[in-house]
Design goal:
By secondary structure, the chain is mainly β. It folds into two domains: 10-47, no CATH class; 50-98, no CATH class. The chain is 0% helix and 22% strand. It has no helices and six strands. It has strands spanning 16-19, 31-34, 54-57, 59-61, 75-77, 90-93. The protein is extended, with a radius of gyration of 17 Å.
Length: 98
């Protein structure tokens, strides 16, 4: 069985930014945000699929710890997601919804 792990090269652009005044002050900030851009070519496509195409999508947030360095369990979306069960994933659509 082949080991699965992190890829050394990632085709995603991931701009990140702070939403708020600045960290660690008394103003109610919204925290860090990140936007992922996935090139269609990295998915084996020559360009975008037809409008109305729906893809399954699930997200797992790893590598989190608290201020004391204690690990926090992974968070997933949707909450009932099972990585091996595509039927438990959410969906994302391309183009304007009909």
């Amino acid at each position: 069985m082949e080991a699965v792990g992190w890829q050394p090269v990632c085709p995603l652009r991931r701009p990140r930014f702070w939403r708020g005044e600045y960290p660690n002050n008394d103003v109610d900030d919204r925290g860090w945000a990140v936007t992922f851009y996935v090139p269609f070519e990295s998915l084996g496509l020559d360009g975008p699929p037809e409008d109305g195409t729906v893809w399954g999508m699930a997200v797992t947030l790893h590598d989190r710890d608290d201020a004391g360095g204690i690990a926090i369990a992974d968070q997933v979306w949707p909450e009932t997601m099972d990585a091996g069960q595509p039927g438990s994933w959410g969906s994302t659509g391309l183009g304007l919804p009909t």
